[in-house]
Write a structure and sequence with these properties.
The complex is a heterodimer.
Chain A lengths: L1 H5 L1 H26 L3 H20 L4 H22 L4 H22 L7 H6 L7 H20 L1 H9 L1 H6 L4 H23 L4 H13 L5 H26 L3 H21 L1
Helix pairs in contact in A: 2-7, 2-10, 2-11, 2-12, 3-4, 3-5, 3-10, 3-11, 4-5, 4-10, 7-10, 11-12, 11-13, 12-13
Chain B lengths: L1 E11 L5 E11 L3 E5 L6 H9 L6 E6 L5 E4 L13 H7 L6 H14 L14 H13 L5 E5 L7 H18 L2 E6 L2 H7 L2 E5 L3 E5 L1 H5 L2 H7 L2 H11 L18
Parallel strand pairs in B: 3-7, 3-8, 5-6, 6-7
Antiparallel strand pairs in B: 1-2, 1-4, 8-9
Helix pairs in contact in B: 3-4, 6-9
The chains are: A mainly alpha, B alpha/beta.
């Protein structure tokens, strides 16, 4: 095991994972509070279109993913003012539409070679130092941002209409929130994959909700749980030769189950 | 002083279906204005227009500059996974963060008779208790205008009378304007200065007794209007009758 930890690619994977756990823990709580677990799911799927589109158009993949994720977020946030279809229908449209469009584009451009598996499940072991820097930047930026807008973002989460009547700029804060999700999706995609990223937002936050006694504590505990899950999950996957992303998700799920049982006693 | 003035305001759904037509009304400081009307009359939409949450399709809405609004929504969809106590919930509602705020929370909780709820979890409050806390939160704003959307939903009949008396008392204390939307005709009518009878347009408006004698009021509410007439005269008693518990649960 120690031999393994000396490998640079393992160190990179661990640093990136622990870094990513911070914004995932923060955003996960808001996903839970706002009942939008499937929102990140839709963003993740739409991001696949971003990866493939970026490769075709020679745009940096992370930039392309961020762009597409932001576009998806914009479509979803506008729906409520202009559409008769309910939100979950639009989530499905963005999610599966993005996935299908991405796969079609890939078939039309045989020169673009990506493995769909890498996009869906991530490649934490091929993370570069540049990726690590990005992750750490987001890991510092996200908590600072939420600390800055904490009161208003919580108020909007509790009751949008009430916030609006108190002259809180609901739309701007909403956009900041959605942009952060897009940013974290772009950075996290390579590490955990599109399919598993939402799970890593929701499971630690749900586990944390069993114990937290204030919104702030819930966010902090959620990030800590995500960190522990990343480390244990990654090490387990190296040890037993399991795929890393799924191993981390399984560990997070185990934590959630332990939390729900532990709460009863 | 006029807080809000509507001039020929109309509102339509995105599909084009009209909800409100040519609404003219004025909300004044120190007065309790009650909006009554059947389901689908556009009561909630009218409130949203007043609060500035939606924009009218045509017409003009003038609002007093820098007016502070205390809004009590019909229901609070607070997610049970958000761990906040009543005290924290009220702290978050105010940008202040110091001892003055703590004192203010205590004072307003006391005014509304909800001190015992201070340390409870928001998610564990009953419907009526939640409603009281939402009222406290609105009062924390030192409102010029207090807006309540069906404040007595899920509150028992004695609680309803208490709540209306409380609102009337607060109006006297703070001197704010109050806008109420309600279904329970007689209780509300008794406490109002001004009644607006709404059914996609203003059917009639005026003092409670003006409105009751208006033919379109009887048309809208039928025989229940008579019950309301009766209750206006019986409103003044201060002791509690158990027998009155069945009244007021009819939905208009």
């Amino acid at each position: 095991m120690l031999e393994l930890l000396k490998q640079e690619f393992v160190q990179r994977a661990l640093i990136a994972g622990v870094g990513l756990a911070i914004p995932l823990g923060v955003l996960g709580c808001f996903m839970l509070w706002r009942r939008m677990s499937f929102f990140s799911d839709a963003m993740g799927h739409a991001a696949i279109l971003g990866v493939i589109g970026g490769l075709i158009l020679h745009i940096h993949p992370q930039l392309a993913v961020g762009g597409i994720a932001l576009l998806a977020a914009l479509i979803l946030s506008r729906h409520r003012h202009s559409s008769r279809l309910p939100l979950d229908t639009w989530l499905g449209a963005v999610s599966y539409g993005g996935l299908a469009l991405g796969l079609c584009l890939m078939a039309l451009n045989p020169s673009v070679r990506v493995s769909p598996e890498a996009i869906l499940f991530g490649e934490i072991l091929s993370v570069t130092w540049t990726d690590v820097v990005w992750v750490l930047a987001v890991a510092i930026f996200t908590p600072l941002l939420f600390w800055k807008i904490w009161r208003v973002v919580i108020l909007i989460t509790m009751d949008e209409d009430w916030a609006a009547t108190n002259n809180i700029p609901v739309y701007s804060i909403q956009m900041i929130f959605l942009t952060t999700i897009a940013l974290v999706t772009a950075v996290g995609l390579k590490i955990t994959g599109a399919l598993l990223l939402p799970a890593l937002m929701v499971f630690p936050a749900a586990t944390s909700s069993y114990f937290a006694r204030s919104p702030e504590k819930m966010v902090i505990i959620s990030s800590l749980i995500a960190m522990v899950a990343f480390v244990i999950g990654a090490l387990t996957s190296f040890w037993f030769d399991l795929p890393t992303g799924p191993a981390i998700v399984v560990i997070s799920l185990v934590f959630m189950v332990i939390g729900s049982i532990g709460k009863k006693f | 002083m006029d807080l809000i003035k509507f001039t020929d305001v109309s509102y339509k759904m995105t599909s084009g279906a009209p909800i409100l037509n040519d609404i003219n009304l004025t909300i004044s400081k120190g007065k309790i204005t009650t909006i009554i009307g059947p389901n689908g009359a556009g009561k909630t939409t009218l409130l949203k227009l007043m609060l500035g949450l939606v924009k009218p399709v045509s017409g003009k809405i003038q609002r007093l500059a820098k007016m502070r609004v205390g809004y009590v929504p019909q229901k609070m969809k607070l997610n049970p996974l958000l761990p906040v106590t009543v005290e924290r919930f009220l702290q978050l509602a105010s940008p202040m963060n110091n001892k003055i705020l703590t004192k203010k929370i205590d004072r307003v909780l006391h005014e509304v008779g909800a001190c015992h709820l201070k340390q409870r979890w928001m998610r564990e409050l009953s419907g009526g208790e939640t409603q009281r806390i939402l009222l406290v939160r609105a009062l924390m704003q030192d409102p010029d205008l207090l807006v309540l959307d069906e404040p007595t939903q899920g509150v028992d009949i004695m609680g309803q009378t208490d709540l209306y008396q409380l609102i009337a008392r607060l109006r006297d204390q703070i001197g704010c304007g109050v806008v109420l939307v309600s279904h329970d005709l007689h209780l509300v009518m008794a406490a109002s200065d001004n009644v607006i009878c709404l059914n996609q347009h203003v059917c009639c408006s005026g003092t409670p007794s003006d409105v009751q004698n208006h033919p379109s009021y009887a048309q809208l509410f039928g025989t229940r209007a008579e019950a309301a007439t009766f209750a206006i005269y019986t409103h003044h008693h201060t002791h509690r009758h158990d027998g009155s518990c069945t009244e007021g649960h009819e939905d208009a």
